[in-house]
Amino acid sequence: MEKKSYTFEEILQKMVNYCVYQDRCHAEVEQKMRDFLLIPEAKDEIFLYLMKENYLNEERFTRSYIRGKFYIKHWGRTKIKMNLKQKGINEKLISNSMDEIDDSDYEKTVMKLYENYFSAQKGLQDYQKKSKTIKHLLSKGYEYEVILDQIERQDSES
After folding, report:
1. Count of CA atoms in the C-beta half-sphere (13 A) of 121
2. Burial (0-12, 13-18, 19+ Cβ within 10 Å), 75
3. Contact 108, 146 (CB under 8 A)
4. Cα(152)–Cα(155) distance, rounded to whole angstroms?
5. Model confidence pLDDT, tens digit, residues 119-157
6. Do the beta carbons of residue 53 and residue 59 sit within 8 Å?
7. Which residues of 87-101 are buried (b: 16+ CB within 10 A; e: fewer)?
8. Residues 136 and 93: beta-carbon distance below 8 Å
């Protein structure tokens, strides 16, 4: 199948639309540009334009990614960090943007996820439920220490 060829202006417009639809990181834009047969100079020019016009903003992308993955998908910091690294976002930007997650919201979420998952386990001893629940929360990217803090807090309340 032959790739349709576009003019530079058409590709530029497509890339603008791609970035307007949702915040993107450089790696995603890079990947998308591979769909078009572009010379390196044209790619650079598109990148510069997208950044200059603020269609492409790595910090904005990182912050909105963190908010979405935590508040909508309920991912923990570890999983969010790992996924951002895979997208080529640098460590410093990730750390500086983690303040998008409110600490008390984070604790409440761990608590709620813990309670929901724990109570959904049927026909198991409490220690088995606890261990399965911890594994579940770790797989969602929550830190072991944070999970244990919440369990201790819950145990001392009950």
Report:
1. 18
2. buried
3. no
4. 5
5. 999 999 999 999 999 999 999 999 999 999 988 887 777
6. no
7. bebeeeebeebbebb
8. no
Instruction: Retrieve residue 127's tokens.
Output: 């220690």
Token pair recorded at residue 140: 């969602």
CA 108, 113, 118, 119 torsion-angle sign: positive
Quote the tokens at residue 150: 């919440």
Which tens digit of pLDDT belongs to each residue from 69-87?
999 999 999 999 999 999 9
| Residues 81/94, Cβ–Cβ less than 8 Å | yes
User: Do 105 and 140 form a contact (C-beta atoms < 8 A)?
Assistant: no
DSSP letter string, the chain: -PPPP--HHHHHHHHHHHHHHS---HHHHHHHHTTS---HHHHHHHHHHHHHTTS--HHHHHHHHHHIIIIIT---HHHHHHHHHHTT--HHHHHHHGGGS-HHHHHHHHHHHHHHHHHH--S--HHHHHHHHHHHHHHTT--HHHHHHHHHHHHHH-
Contact assessment for residue 147 and residue 137, using Cβ atoms and an 8 Å cutoff = yes
